[in-house]
Amino acid sequence: MSINNKTNIDISSCANCGKGEEDSGKLKNCTACMMVKYCSRECQVSHRPQHKEECRRRAAELHDEKLFKQPPPAEDCPICFLRLPYLNTGSAYKSCCGKVICSGCIHAPVYDNQGNKVDNKKCPFCRTLAHKSINEEYLKRLKKRVEANDPIAIYNTGNYYRDGRNGFPQDYTKALELFHRAAELGQAEAYCNIGYLFEHGRGVERDSKKAAHYYELAAMRGDVKARHNLGVSEEKTGNMDRAIKHYTIAAKSGHSNSLIYIQDLYKDGHATKEDYTKALKLYQQYLGEIKSSQRDEAATAHEQYRYY
Prior knowledge:
The protein is mainly alpha-helical.
């Protein structure tokens, strides 16, 4: 006999009729709670009235375990190997090679073999001549990257359709299609954008449940904005403990506003000093992980590249 330690339920036999695998064949888990097994669909339906409350409770616990698990950190810059900053202004996507490179490496000086500083206008990674603006050459490169199933290129194209810019007509349907495609290829921000469209009813019927669903998918994959949005939603409904959890995870990933929100909750008596101190330390840890002298120089020389 095999016992589920959380429930003391025998999981070696059907929860409804008691048959084991030797009598009924392979047993299948309840996919919602994973606590009990059934020998058939009929047994699962029959057992549902007495199981549903415990099933819902455990399913919610499993969901929260996934939701509040610290996501993996952002990728490293492929040149300096330091963690990429959270803010997009701290890095740039290169349509020539599909790499995301930090502002420090983009603006780092380049020297020839004689040690002389040279005027460099090439991609720091693949050495392709950089485009000066959103022009025909950039869009041609972007199209190639989309055809190669580059999730960032697909996501960026979706943004252009959503906003109707850079020569693209505003088309929410096309944007949504591209966001789904990018998300399936691993671009977490695309799920966040889908959530935003549902939250505000842009090109789709406004649906707060669907918005929350896509924000959660994005947050669990490491999108910081989506994580912050979930915190705001929980705070609005009075679930302060859950809001603080979301804000803390976002602060650890570099979202400065999440740190400010926890500070405000502390001032209003909804968070403890320990909550704020923990979030502050995690945010400072993030700053240490992304800091480099090259990035500081880039931020000083080019205000738009600040990455804090």
